[in-house]
């Protein structure tokens, strides 16, 4: 709700906006004496405005809340999941890696974290007709373990799987996707320092709003650059939790799956 | 004069981005060739096992106990890197940082007879050798190495390969076994590998690092009971071993290769030469034969494969079983 819709007189509204009070929150955070001084009105009039504003502000916040039931409904209806192509793993995960969530995958070197990352970047592109999301992927590589030939192998296998699926169900939908198209739809960033990493994560918001069909962001790995270059561990924790918060916001806003390795 | 100015203007955005790091635009994966460039190790059988050789843009680690052929492998790689790309090489010079023995110059010279890319130059001229004695020295010379590589990019064979033989020798001598020192040590692992990876991406380098092994005392698998990579436990000379420098360093490399050696005792009964005289004319021969093999412990682009190889005067060569 904006100032222009407040149930107050037009002159008061004009004064508020010209004094810079453009949002409800800015009015509610000011005191009545501030308002009376800035708008050059009497104190009682300012108290009156403040009362109206805070009332409608509370209303607008209450309107935004959801009950737990609503949230459950919403989750069951619209929470898309990206399959890992492994039935057992999907079972454990409840159908795959969930959108709107930040998922972390940990493990010793060589266990297959990167393989799972590449697999998801490919699987997110399975078209809707085949039970996929038909989205695109962002791959942020900090370690340099992303190998194009491996991505191509996985993409080829994915296309083969779709053809098999077609034959099995005698489906009529055509497999139009080529392995090369799959590679083209992975936005690949190679990161060489933690400053670059923070910059790219800050930039993601803009990038994703320009590329609406991005459904998964994969960061492989979040830790590498933070394990050197930081002497001050408290600072490191602050920067990392800042990144975590940004990723969570991003996931919610654009309903995409963020996966850190 | 005008020419130089115009080239400078043309280079300005590139310089800007190289100073600012990666531009904020994603790379199109189709712009580059669909396979990562590899550097042949000079033997088709080992190359096949490694999917073409040692990959560029990432760090490959070679783990083995002493006397398994790590250094042989590295020396051979510095020579095969000079081969033109039609022969699987990078047509590049290499930088060899050695920390252990005096540099095995004579062996390199011997190998250079096998790997002579062309007759007009001596392959040894294109292997730059630098000794490193401590971690601090390595950190000190890192910027110099970077500018050295940058300067070499206009020469006939630019540097595209860095070998560090061995990283373990640096770290195993300088640090105590205290909590504080170990923390500092793993901090330095990530710092050095971060620098190496940045250079590897910036200049398209192949980086090969060798590592020593430690004996495994506990009966369980791997470091602290954690299994790293395809092989649950590495065996060499009949003993269970694991790579030195622990799990922190294992996080710093992209691929890990393991060379094992095992002595086979082949008992061959000698045929009686002098028929029937004396009775005990037969004598048992004990032949010792070293079986060496190469395993892929983990690599983002390779499955669990292995092959056997032998080291001869001419170099390191794989053979089919």
TrEMBL record, chain A:
Pfam families per record: Rad51
Q: Can you give the residue ranges of the RecA family profile domain?
A: 78-261
Q: Is ATP-binding set as a keyword in this record?
A: yes
Q: Identify the GO cellular component terms for this protein.
A: Rad51B-Rad51C-Rad51D-XRCC2 complex; Rad51C-XRCC3 complex; replication fork
Q: Which GO terms describe its biological process?
A: meiotic DNA recombinase assembly; reciprocal meiotic recombination
The GO terms this record gives for MF are: ATP binding; ATP-dependent DNA damage sensor activity; crossover junction DNA endonuclease activity; four-way junction DNA binding
| The keyword Ribosomal protein belongs to this UniProt entry's keyword annotation | no
Read off the CDD domains from this record. Rad51C (cd19492)
Q: Which UniProt keywords apply?
A: ATP-binding, DNA damage, DNA repair, Nucleotide-binding, Nucleus
- Subcellular localization: Nucleus
PANTHER family given in the database record: DNA REPAIR PROTEIN RAD51 HOMOLOG 3, DNA REPAIR PROTEIN RAD51 HOMOLOG 3 RAD51C
Q: What is this protein called?
A: DNA repair protein RAD51 homolog 3
The source organism is Citrus clementina (Clementine)
What taxonomic lineage is listed for the species of origin? Eukaryota, Viridiplantae, Streptophyta, Embryophyta, Tracheophyta
UniProtKB/TrEMBL annotation, chain B:
The UniProt entry lists the main location of this chain as nucleus
| GO CC annotation terms, alphabetical | Rad51C-XRCC3 complex; replication fork
Q: Which GO terms describe its biological process?
A: double-strand break repair via synthesis-dependent strand annealing; meiotic cell cycle; resolution of mitotic recombination intermediates; t-circle formation; telomere maintenance via recombination
Organism annotation: Citrus clementina (Clementine)
The record's annotation in InterPro entries points to:
DNA_recomb/repair_RecA-like (IPR016467), P-loop_NTPase (IPR027417), Rad51_C (IPR013632), RecA_ATP-bd (IPR020588), XRCC3-like_C (IPR047348)
- Highest taxon, organism lineage: Eukaryota
| Localization (cell) | Nucleus
Q: Where would I find the RecA family profile domain in this sequence?
A: 35-213
Ranges annotated as spanning the membrane: 187-209
Keywords (A to Z) from UniProt: ATP-binding, DNA damage, DNA repair, Membrane, Nucleotide-binding, Nucleus, Transmembrane, Transmembrane helix
Name of this chain's protein: RecA family profile 1 domain-containing protein
What one GO molecular function would you report for this record?
four-way junction DNA binding
């Amino acid at each position: 709700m904006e100032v222009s819709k407040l149930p107050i007189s037009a002159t008061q509204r004009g004064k508020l906006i010209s004094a810079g009070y453009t949002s409800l929150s800015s009015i509610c955070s000011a005191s009545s004496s501030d308002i009376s001084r800035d708008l050059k009105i009497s104190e009682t009039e300012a108290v009156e405005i403040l009362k109206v504003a805070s009332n409608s502000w509370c209303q607008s916040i209450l309107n935004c809340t959801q009950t737990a039931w609503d949230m459950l409904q919403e989750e069951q209806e619209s929470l898309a999941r990206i399959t890992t192509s492994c039935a057992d793993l999907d079972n454990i995960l409840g159908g795959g890696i969930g959108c709107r969530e930040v998922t972390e995958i940990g493990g010793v070197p060589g266990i297959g974290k990167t393989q799972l990352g590449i697999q998801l970047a490919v699987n997110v592109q399975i078209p809707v007709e085949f039970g996929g999301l038909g989205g695109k992927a962002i791959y942020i590589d900090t370690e340099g373990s992303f190998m194009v030939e491996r991505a191509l192998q996985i993409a080829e296998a994915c296309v083969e799987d779709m053809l098999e699926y077609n034959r099995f169900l005698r489906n009529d939908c055509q497999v139009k996707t080529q392995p090369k198209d799959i590679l083209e739809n992975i936005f690949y960033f190679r990161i060489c320092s933690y400053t670059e990493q923070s910059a790219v994560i800050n930039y993601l918001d803009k990038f994703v709003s320009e590329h609406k069909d991005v459904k998964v962001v994969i960061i492989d790995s979040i830790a590498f650059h933070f394990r050197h270059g930081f002497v001050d561990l408290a600072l490191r924790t602050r920067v990392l939790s800042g990144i975590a918060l940004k990723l969570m916001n991003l996931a919610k806003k654009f309903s995409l799956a963020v996966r850190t390795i | 004069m005008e020419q130089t100015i115009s080239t400078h203007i043309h280079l300005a955005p590139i310089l800007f981005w190289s100073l600012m790091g990666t531009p904020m635009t994603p790379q199109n994966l189709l712009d580059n060739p669909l396979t990562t460039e590899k550097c042949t190790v000079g033997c088709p059988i080992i190359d096949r096992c490694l999917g073409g050789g040692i990959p560029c843009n990432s760090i490959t680690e070679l783990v083995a106990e002493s006397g398994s052929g790590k250094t042989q492998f590295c020396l051979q790689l510095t020579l095969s890197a000079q081969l033109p790309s039609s022969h699987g090489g990078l047509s590049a010079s290499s930088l060899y940082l050695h920390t252990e023995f005096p540099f095995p110059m004579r062996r390199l010279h011997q190998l250079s007879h096998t790997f002579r890319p062309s007759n007009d130059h001596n392959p040894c001229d294109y292997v730059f050798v630098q000794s490193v004695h401590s971690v601090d020295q390595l950190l000190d010379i890192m910027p110099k190495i970077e500018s050295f590589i940058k300067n070499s990019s206009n020469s006939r064979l630019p540097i595209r390969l860095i070998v560090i033989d061995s990283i373990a020798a640096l770290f195993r001598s300088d640090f105590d076994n205290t909590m504080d020192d170990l923390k500092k040590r793993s901090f330095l692992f990530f710092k050095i590998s971060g620098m190496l990876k940045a250079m590897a991406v910036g200049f398209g380098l192949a980086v090969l690092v060798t590592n020593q092994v430690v004996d495994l005392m506990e009966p369980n698998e791997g470091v602290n009971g954690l299994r790293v990579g395809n092989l649950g436990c590495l065996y060499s000379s009949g003993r269970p071993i694991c790579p030195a420098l622990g799990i922190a360093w294992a996080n710093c490399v992209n691929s890990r290769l393991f060379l094992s050696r095992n002595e086979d005792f082949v008992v061959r009964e000698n045929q009686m030469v002098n028929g029937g005289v004396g009775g005990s004319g037969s004598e048992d021969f004990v032949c010792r034969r070293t079986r060496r093999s190469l395993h892929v412990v983990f690599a983002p682009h390779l499955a669990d494969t292995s092959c056997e190889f032998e080291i001869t005067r001419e170099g390191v060569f794989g053979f089919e079983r």
